[in-house]
Amino acid sequence: MEPISSRTPRGLTGAGALPGNGIVSESSRNQFGAGSTGLTNIRAPSPRLRTSLRRRKRFVAEGGRVAINGRDAVKLQAAAREIDPTGKKVVVVTGDVANPATGIALIDAAVSRFGQLDMLANNAGVFTPKPFLELTEADYDWNLNAILKGSFFTAQAAAKAMKDRGGAIVQTGSMWAIQAIGATPSSAYSAAKAGVHALTRNLAIELERAAF
Asked: Over 70: is that where the pLDDT of 76 sits?
């Protein structure tokens, strides 16, 4: 999976998480000026979670501040302690981003604690391969809500918070959005990720033209 991004006119680009305030959901590769804030959604299997934590730790080590989100309060607090043992540069918001109120709370927490928001990295997701003929409506909703709905409304809240200053939104895409893998049938996941790709392209155009 690789990040795909939407940038505002004064958006920030690049690789690595450098000083900044933002909301980060894994796989973010944005450069920031001093004092930026990042937000992160943690809803991924262990290997990706470890990658996310390493990136968040680097973000903080280089002067950034982060707000992180996940559904498991215990794991989330453990992640926060690993990212910043002092607790001064990390804020935690527990909740499911499939609920738009969670994304709004995440943005609000970052702005309230750190004074601004510079980037959002959306990475919350699920991956449970299952043959198309066996998928239920619940399976479909699980994928679309966690991956697409969560990304959509969290990005919307972040864009509103960054409207006057500019910033960056990074979405985690997937090769499953553009191709099928026979060994891992995942039509619902692929549909959700394809939606994320389409959403990101639309935001790149729409936010670029907005009066930020």
From this structure: yes
Residues known to be catalytic: 189
Please say whether the beta carbons of 63 and 198 come within 8 A. Answer: no
Comparing C-alpha atoms, which of 127, 69, 59, 120 is closest to residue 95? 69
Token pair of 171, please?
Answer: 């979405």
Whole-number Å distance between alpha carbons of 177 and 199: 12
What is the tens place of the pLDDT at every residue in 134-172? Answer: 999 999 999 999 999 999 999 999 999 999 888 999 998
Q: What is the mean pLDDT of residues 61-86?
A: 91
DSSP output for 62-94:
TT-EEEEEES-HHHHHHHHHHH-TTSSSEEEEE
Q: CA angle, corner 35, sides to 30 and 39, nearest 5?
A: 50
Pairwise CA distance, residues 75 & 184, whole Å: 28
Q: Is this prediction's pTM over 0.90?
A: no
Of 155, 165, 157, which is closest to residue 200 (Cα–Cα)? 155
Cα separation, 29 vs 149, whole angstroms: 22
Domains of the chain: 3-209 (3.40.50.720)
When pLDDT is cut at 50, 70 and 90, the band that residue 59 belongs to is confident
Question: Could you tell me what percent of the chain has a pLDDT over 70?
Answer: 74
- List the structure tokens of 145: 């809500």
Evaluated on CA atoms 2, 199, 121, 53, the torsion sign reads negative
